[in-house]
Amino acid sequence: MSVWTIALLALLPPLVLAVALTWRGRPGQRFAAFQLATTIAVTILTLLTFATDQASVTDLALTLVLLSLPGTLLLSVFLERWV
């Protein structure tokens, strides 16, 4: 097991906690947890690039970064209108 794989596995519990808080919690907590989950997911995908030596996974991380802003804006509109 490489150092990259160990770092990747170490980030899985915080990702699970952030996703759980996004699913349940107060609206402010959901918003912050969504941002944290996105950041952790991008970090995991970047570490996966180094762990597997496949540069194509970097494209997924960059796509997630580009889609996180519109997703955050949609979540904030949803929370403002319906919650």
TrEMBL record:
InterPro entries: MrpF/PhaF-like. Its main location: membrane. It comes from the Bacteria. The chain crosses the membrane at residues 28-48, 60-79. Keywords: Cell membrane, Membrane, Transmembrane, Transmembrane helix. The keyword Cell membrane applies. It is found in: Cell membrane. It is a multi-pass membrane protein. This is Multicomponent Na+:H+ antiporter subunit F. It comes from Methylobacterium persicinum.
